[in-house]
Amino acid sequence: xxxxxxxxxxxxxxxxxxxxxxxxxxxxxxxxxxxxxxxxxxxxxxxxxxxxxxxxxxxxxxxxxxxxxxxxxxxxxxxxxxxxxxxxxxxxxxxxxxxxxxxxxxxxxxxxxxxxxxxxxxxxxxxxxxxxxxxxxxxxxxxxxxxxxxxxxxxxxxxxxxxxxxxxxxxxxxxxxxxxxxxxxxxxxxxxxxxxxxxxxxxxxxxxxxxxxxxxxxxxxxxxxxxxxxxxxxxxxxxxxxxxxxxxxxxxxxxxxxxxxxxxxxxxxxxxxxxxxxxxxxxx
Length: 284
Ligand SMILES: Cc1cc2nc3c(=O)[nH]c(=O)nc-3n(C[C@H](O)[C@H](O)[C@H](O)COP(=O)(O)OP(=O)(O)OC[C@H]3O[C@@H](n4cnc5c(N)ncnc54)[C@H](O)[C@@H]3O)c2cc1C
What we know:
By secondary structure, the protein is α+β, with helices and mostly antiparallel strands. It has two domains: 2-164, Uridine Diphospho-n-acetylenolpyruvylglucosamine Reductase, domain 3 (2-Layer Sandwich); 171-283, CO dehydrogenase flavoprotein, C-terminal domain (Enolase-like, domain 1, 2-Layer Sandwich). The chain is built from eleven helices and 14 strands. The strands form four sheets. A five-stranded antiparallel beta sheet has the order 4-5-10-6-7. Strand 13 (201-210) and strand 14 form a beta hairpin. The structure holds flavin-adenine dinucleotide. The site of flavin-adenine dinucleotide (FAD) has 31 residues, from strand 2, helix 7 and strand 10.
């Protein structure tokens, strides 16, 4: 295997073009190194386009090769896209967070991937560049194609960045997970919410849970029912009792029974919506 580190985007695209069928993009390699390594690994972690963290045109632009530690420690992201910093701070261990990246978390497409859940709840988009140097943007929630699969071909495309609209003054977001340990344990359930609150009522709610399907799963029926619902204890109770009914809850041999997961889904769904709403009210 050869390992190439591109120093600029033009060089990265040229290397991809010059090695069809043999090359694959690599970032932190925390997932890829446990799978079949390609003949040629193309490291994209030194590109300015994949490592920037800025606000442009009112959106956060987060390089796909930013590590979970970098995101977790970003003050602006913590303030206006809190769910993402909470998710990144919960991943693996300090060693994993120091090398594992945001883009890798999405593209590896593990059903329980923590950062991906927060990104979908926040309504993030992803920007990719192809062999012709053309870019395209897709909603993160539309990238999934099956278990451990996305529509991105890492042999001919590079994810450059994730784009998120920061929370406005009446919005808040939150992420939580239940796992058997506080570190180095995949979650039994993880979830995130982004809400907008106006005059004591939910104007909009995005509520995402995993691992339920191969991709982070939005509870679309519940999201719709919550539109216009009052921010009250009754509403949180309704979320707790109705969340699990909307999804097919599977048992996991290693993690938990379906019955326990079903209970956790209700508790976690209500918690993330409540926390996101509290943040929206605090920020007003
Ligand atoms: C011990 C351990 C614990 C872990 N714990 C957790 C956990 O708690 N929660 C969690 O969510 N994950 C966890 N992970 C998984 C992993 O660390 C994350 O998914 C991480 O974010 C992957 O990023 P990476 O940069 O290492 O990806 P890589 O391994 O470098 O790449 C993963 C995939 O994405 C592709 N890819 C990467 N970047 C790009 C890009 N910019 N453009 C195109 N293709 C790209 C690669 O080709 C590969 O297919 C754990 C892993 C380990 C080993």
